[in-house]
């Protein structure tokens, strides 16, 4: 019964966590945002387990920690990587691990105070972080290049690409709507433009011409 009460309290906190304005953290990298999430859990008397951290930072910073094509779901892998960075000996901003849960280290509390100052505009830095986009661009474009559809296109066999292969590189199921397929295609296009990959851009234009009925 105690466990159920704790779960209700956690859900209440998560439900009332509004996303922060992007302007507040555009100069703050993802590792610092995860440290902030651990702090917020500790402040509210909630154990910073891996799952709790995932939900918290996703709710606070959805544009940084959501899955490609699924903005309503968190990318737990990216958050796990940030937690690993923060607990590694070269940083040691956090103590713990995914099994034991996490807590702020002495160094982490200093980083947290500095992060507060950045959020308030007291510390100005030259770089604007867009780590979500950069990570997703590289990862998903590289993944797409390994699919059968892209390999056929680069081998001059684009006309033999099947619908199954189109759905594979778009990462959608057989019953996915045209809206979802079009959104994923456009997202790939956005990422290809960001990293200036002209070959991928041409490939996506080709797919749209050949398989327009899937998107329109």
Describe this protein's structure:
This protein has 216 residues and is mainly α. It folds into two domains: 2-119, Arc Repressor Mutant, subunit A (Orthogonal Bundle), CATH 1.10.10; 131-214, no CATH class. 62% of the residues lie in helices and 7% in strands. Strands 1-2 form a two-stranded antiparallel sheet. It has a two-stranded antiparallel ribbon with strand order 3-4. A hairpin with a 2-residue loop joins strand 1 (66-67) and strand 2. Helix 3 packs across helix 4 (50-60), helix 3 packs across helix 7 and helix 11 runs antiparallel to helix 12. Mean pLDDT is 85; it is low at 1-6 and 128-133.
- What's the story with the biggest beta sheet? 2 strands, antiparallel
End-to-end Cα distance, whole Å, is 52 Å
Q: Would you give the CATH topology of the largest domain?
A: Arc Repressor Mutant, subunit A
Fraction of helical residues = 55-70%
Q: What is the alpha-carbon Rg in Å?
A: 21 Å
Give the structural class: mainly alpha
The strand count comes to 4
**Average of per-residue pLDDT values:** 85
């Amino acid at each position: 019964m105690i466990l159920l009460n704790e779960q209700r309290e956690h859900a209440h906190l998560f439900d009332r966590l509004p996303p922060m304005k992007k302007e507040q953290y555009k100069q703050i990298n993802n590792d610092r945002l995860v440290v902030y999430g651990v702090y917020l859990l500790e402040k509210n008397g909630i154990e910073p387990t891996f799952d709790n951290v995932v939900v918290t930072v996703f709710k606070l910073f959805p544009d940084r920690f959501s899955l490609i094509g699924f903005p309503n779901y968190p990318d737990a892998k990216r958050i796990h990587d940030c937690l690993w960075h923060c607990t590694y000996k070269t940083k040691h901003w956090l103590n713990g691990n995914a099994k034991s849960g996490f807590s702020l280290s002495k160094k982490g509390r200093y980083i947290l105070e500095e992060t507060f100052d950045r959020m308030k505009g007291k510390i100005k830095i030259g770089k604007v972080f867009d780590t979500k986009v950069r990570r997703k661009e590289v990862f998903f474009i590289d993944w797409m290049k390994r699919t059968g559809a892209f390999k056929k296109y680069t081998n001059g066999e684009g006309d033999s690409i099947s619908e199954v292969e189109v759905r594979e590189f778009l990462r959608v199921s057989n019953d996915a709507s045209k809206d979802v397929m079009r959104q994923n295609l456009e997202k790939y296009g956005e990422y290809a433009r960001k990293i200036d990959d002209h070959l991928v851009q041409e490939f996506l234009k080709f797919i749209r011409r050949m398989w327009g009925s899937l998107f329109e």
